[in-house]
Specification:
Urease, subunit C, domain 1, 5-stranded parallel β-sheet, 2 domains
């Protein structure tokens, strides 16, 4: 395959220039200028488009048919330009084997899961997975990680009141111990936590992920005066990875503006795409990227936060998140449209963006398909205690 004539943006290589991309045997084999295609090459015309490494979404929920959050990954992720997703704790030790067999292994989207420290995972909208302390099980989690060491990339814990009840301390401690024992990063969901954010941040290690970093609920990165918490700066300084995790209730333009103005930037932009936000306000990762363009983040930085940076967080730089020769043959073709586009956050604030990123086509493992911003319609879902 020859992806021809597009403007390649590959922050992992410091590249922003018109280039042709050659993919053979599911790998990028060359990056340069090819005046004519080779015999037998499929040609993807990218003139006037941006060609970026296959987008990586560090936070979604795709345990379709089991988790109340679950959406189907291929129509909602791959079809909208995202080649790799991290399922952020939809499955726990009791449910992970089913997740692997019936979703991960039959999806074209590459799914790299984090295991929930709650053994059931995110099954119920009405009962938090950590409200019963008996489900906070380090031994079962470690057994599951070892059985699926080839696939599981981290541990997940949700610390909001409605998920954790009175067990926030034991849930965080157990999740930290489990991640350390497994030599994996921990992803911590914050917002409306029953323990102070500063206390949580102090416990996080280099490489751990704080998701929902710009939520507008209690215990956020901005203090009561709107200033970035000193503990947040210290965490970033020692290598804690701040992730957006937009979701249905976890992204505020006001918080993002305040943090960005004080030079607190997220390491990664992620959607937290699930059944409660797939028809708005999130829609897809490209729309979330467009929101950060509207907030003044540069195009190259937005691409870096959805390619090279999540690949680094997952421990796969050079394999994913780049178009360097030898990398996986994944690419996303985007059109940068100018106009007036209303974009909403999770607090119902709307801003009118002057530009947006629209997925046009996606290449996954050397196979091309059209992309779309239009999502397939899901049957109505009762919104009971949604969060994130």
């Amino acid at each position: 395959m020859l992806i021809r004539g597009g403007t390649v943006i590959d922050p992992a290589q410091g590249l922003h220039a018109v280039r042709d991309v050659v993919v053979r045997d599911r790998r990028v084999t060359a990056l340069g200028e090819r005046p004519t295609p080779a015999p037998g090459e499929e040609v993807v015309d990218a003139h006037g488009l941006l060609v970026v490494p296959g987008l990586i979404d560090l936070h979604v929920h795709v345990f379709y048919g089991a988790s109340h959050y679950g959406i189907e990954p291929d129509p909602h992720c791959l079809a909208t330009g995202t080649t790799t997703v991290v399922d952020a704790g939809s499955a726990g030790a009791f449910t992970f084997t089913a997740f692997r067999r019936y979703v991960i292994e039959v999806s074209q989207t590459r799914i790299l899961p984090f295991l929930n420290i709650g053994a059931t995972g995110m099954l119920s909208a009405d009962v938090g997975e950590l409200e019963d302390v008996r489900f906070i099980d380090k031994a079962r989690a470690l057994q599951t990680i070892e059985a699926h060491r080839d696939l599981i990339r981290g541990v997940k814990v949700r610390l909001s009141r409605q998920q954790v009840g009175a067990n926030a301390g034991v849930a965080l401690a157990t999740a930290l111990e489990t991640a350390a024992a497994a030599r994996l990063p921990l992803m911590v969901h914050v917002g409306d936590t029953p323990i102070p954010l500063d206390d949580i941040l102090r416990e996080l290690r280099p490489g751990d992920v704080l998701t929902h970093c710009f939520h507008g609920r209690e215990q956020g990165v901005l203090d009561a005066r709107g200033r970035v918490r000193a503990e947040a700066r210290r965490a970033v300084g020692r290598g804690v990875h701040f992730d957006v995790g937009h979701g249905v209730g976890s992204f505020s333009f006001a918080v993002a503006r305040g943090a960005l103005a004080q030079d607190l930037r997220p390491a990664t932009i992620s959607s937290d795409l699930h059944v409660y936000n797939v028809h708005g306000p999130v829609f897809d990762l490209a729309t979330t990227m467009s929101k950060f363009l509207a907030l003044g983040v540069s195009l190259d930085d937005v691409v870096r936060m959805t390619t090279a940076a999540p690949a680094q967080a997952l421990g796969v730089p050079g394999e994913l998140g780049t178009l360097a020769p030898g990398a996986a043959g994944d690419a996303t073709l985007l059109r940068l449209e100018e106009g007036a586009f209303p974009l909403a956050d999770a607090t119902r604030e709307t801003l009118v963006a002057g530009a947006r990123l629209v997925p046009v086509a996606v290449v996954k493992g050397g196979v091309a398909r059209a992309a779309s911003l239009q999502q397939p319609r899901l049957p109505p879902v009762p919104v009971s205690r949604p969060y994130g």
